[in-house]
Design brief:
15 helices; mainly alpha
Length: 346
């Protein structure tokens, strides 16, 4: 990890501590400590297992996609990919560092750059598509609750849905109509020319067109393997399900046994969508505010609400960054993908 990334990591931890400190300003520390020690540890363990399964399943997805073309790619290296993704998602605005971070990890193992890029793009497409599907279901179940209780948050929810929906439409255009996508991209990309030199502009445009070609070629290849595609889609649904269930098990650990699992899960899906709109790494500030706003209707005790928010943030944000930092230190298992990449179109 570079010096800049280390500083950003420490800064995000500091911001998190300050936000938590602000959140507990009206809560007696003795009450918060009492609530913590009266938690049901078994339900909290289930919540922890959920985030572990979430990461493990993404490792399996990476292994499935890469091993389909690179047989010697190990599960250890496959697991490093989502772990490092968690780290760089957590320290960059709009989680923009996740994709480059994954690419670097795969290149470290010896996977061909073009092949690695196309696999990551396909994984991203499926992940985004399943997020939109889950979010649409959550809108049907929980949007009325949000719109009734907190109208201002409902606007963020709808805006988040529209952004992710347009991302999926753009990706589908790339996958099934690349020629039109390139023409459209050229038009939309033209204003960039006003701010950069011609040489850099055309280089950026060329890189963008190469990514469009890579995704199209990968989609054609995957399209010829429907069983593989179905497997990745189902694994992604399982992965997201475990992630979205985390707040429900945290609430059970706090003694709230009568909560509706479908409503709680739906609200968590909406929170994740809201977080994606905040430019601050990890959605810090917006994530905590959204959680307290939405789950305050279920958790009557202010101290337990704050404790639930802290536990949720530790599991879904800080834990991923910590294991991602550790994963960076793990030495990859080197493979030779040069022969395979030269003989196989990618």
């Amino acid at each position: 990890m570079s010096r800049k990334n280390k500083l950003t990591f420490l800064l995000m931890v500091l911001i998190g501590i300050l936000i938590i400190g602000y959140s507990i300003r009206d809560v007696k520390l003795s009450v918060l400590i009492h609530d913590f020690f009266t938690l049901d540890p078994w339900w909290l363990l289930v919540a922890f297992i959920c985030i572990c399964v979430y990461l493990l399943v993404e490792g399996i997805i990476t292994k499935v996609l890469v091993s389909n073309r690179v047989p010697n790619f190990t599960f250890k290296d496959a697991l490093r990919v989502p772990l490092v993704e968690q780290l760089f998602n957590g320290i960059t605005p709009f989680s923009s560092g996740g994709q480059p971070g994954q690419l670097v990890v795969m290149l470290q193992t010896g996977v061909d750059g073009g092949r690695a890029s196309s696999v990551l793009l396909m994984k991203f497409v499926v992940y985004q598509a399943m997020i939109v599907v889950n979010f649409f279901i959550s809108l049907v179940i929980g949007f009325h609750f949000v719109a009734t209780k907190m109208q201002y948050l409902s606007l963020f929810v709808l805006f988040g849905f529209l952004i992710h929906f347009f991302v999926i439409v753009a990706l589908l255009l790339v996958m099934y109509w690349p020629s039109f996508t390139k023409r459209l991209t050229k038009i939309l990309f033209h204003p960039v020319k006003w701010f950069v030199k011609d040489q850099k502009y055309y280089q950026m445009q060329l890189t963008l067109f190469e990514k469009i070609d890579n995704l199209y070629e990968e989609s054609v290849r995957i399209g010829r393997q429907p069983v593989l595609m179905v497997k990745v889609v189902l694994l992604t649904l399982v992965q997201l399900t475990f992630y979205y269930l985390i707040p429900y098990f945290i609430m059970l650990s706090l003694g709230y046994y009568n909560v509706n699992v479908f409503m709680v899960t739906s609200l968590h899906i909406m929170i994740v969508m809201i977080i994606s709109l905040f430019p601050i790494p990890g959605g810090s500030g917006g994530a905590e505010f959204s959680f307290e706003s939405l789950f305050g209707s279920f958790i009557s005790s202010n101290s337990k609400l704050v404790l639930a928010m802290i536990l949720w943030r530790i599991l879904t944000y800080y834990f991923g960054m910590i294991v991602g930092a550790i994963a960076l230190l793990v030495k990859p298992d080197k493979i030779d993908d040069t022969k395979k990449s030269s003989s196989t179109s990618g």
